[in-house]
């Protein structure tokens, strides 16, 4: 095997019941704890995990637990090929239902998968599904909405991201009826084609409030859905939010039930095309700003709006430049000056993290020349190739 060993992640399936007959041998290769520890090092190499599953019966369980831990259906590639792959995978999961018990992350495009396949996905016997991501461009059918409702009812669900268009308000409200009380992280990139008063409002009663830890209002979150944040049929309690990611002006937040939560939020991630006012957030400890285009002044203007009571609390500021031009000396000097001026207003700042997509060879070799004002007593984290992480809220300490 050619895979470079990495630290294994915490096992996600230790609490699953081991199928009878596995790990009953007496040799070292049959000791379950030792096997799981070895296989954990290969968690990100599907080819090696497949090879492990062929060693003997005792190795099948831990290898499968990683192979099927994250399932992507119809997320990328040609629609025709995607639909065939979805159908084939569903045949495997339906023939061996215990494999669905290994799935902790499910990402599916409902439109590409097709309604029949999507409903088959929703009926799988998930037992440890934690992260759910659903996309789909066209209007979701009522049947698909009922399918999403079933997925959200699993008590293990912790994170839900949705990028879909709903035909009407009824369909949108329907998906939350059985929502798990354990849901903590929500991303809404949703729109409704035909906004109207629900036809059967009494059928959408909220039986319990779900305390969210993080909220992201994605690019698809339209102004005609702002009412839902304040509506009695919204099942979420925003009063204890710790992390907020926004892609639009914070006015929508100040005007809604989210207002009181501004005093509890520790992390704000702002994906902006122009400077954003962060003054309403008075308990910030971390800020991340994504800037689109070459004008880096927007980032520093956004940082300058942080409330005075938050400035002693801020420990980390992160800049993500996207899309990034080649960073020449002049551009780096501008960023360097901005960082130097920013630090003067944040006495306890410990980390400045800059993420870019491209850089010149000279930059990678000599940061001192490109950042002459940089105080090396402060930790600098510099990533040349940013990674996309849906778990953006995990940086909060």
Please summarize what this structure is:
Residues 1-23 are annotated as: Disordered. With 397 residues, this protein is an alpha/beta fold. It has 14 helices and 15 strands.
Folded structure, characterized:
With 397 residues, this protein is α/β, with parallel strands linked by helices. It has helices at 32-40, 46-52, 57-67, 79-95, 110-113, 115-122, 142-152, 169-174, 226-230, 251-254, 297-304, 329-343, 361-365, 367-370; strands at residues 70-73, 105-109, 131-140, 159-168, 185-188, 191-194, 210-211, 214-217, 236-237, 243-246, 267-272, 286-291, 316-321, 351-355, 379-383. Helix 11 links the parallel strand 12 (286-291) and strand 13. Residues 1-5, 10-19 and 21-25 have low confidence and may be disordered.
Distance between the termini: 37 Å
Strand content of the residues, in percent? 15-25%
Question: Percent range for helical residues?
Answer: 25-40%
Question: What low-confidence regions span 5 or more consecutive residues with pLDDT below 50?
Answer: 1-5, 10-19, 21-25
Largest sheet: 13 strands, parallel
Region (Disordered): 1-23
Topology (elements, then pairings):
Blueprint: H1 32-40, H2 46-52, H3 57-67, E1 70-73, H4 79-95, E2 105-109, H5 110-113, H6 115-122, E3 131-140, H7 142-152, E4 159-168, H8 169-174, E5 185-188, E6 191-194, E7 210-211, E8 214-217, H9 226-230, E9 236-237, E10 243-246, H10 251-254, E11 267-272, E12 286-291, H11 297-304, E13 316-321, H12 329-343, E14 351-355, H13 361-365, H14 367-370, E15 379-383
Parallel strand pairs: 1-2, 2-3, 3-4, 4-5, 4-6, 5-8, 7-9, 8-10, 10-11, 11-12, 12-13, 13-14, 14-15
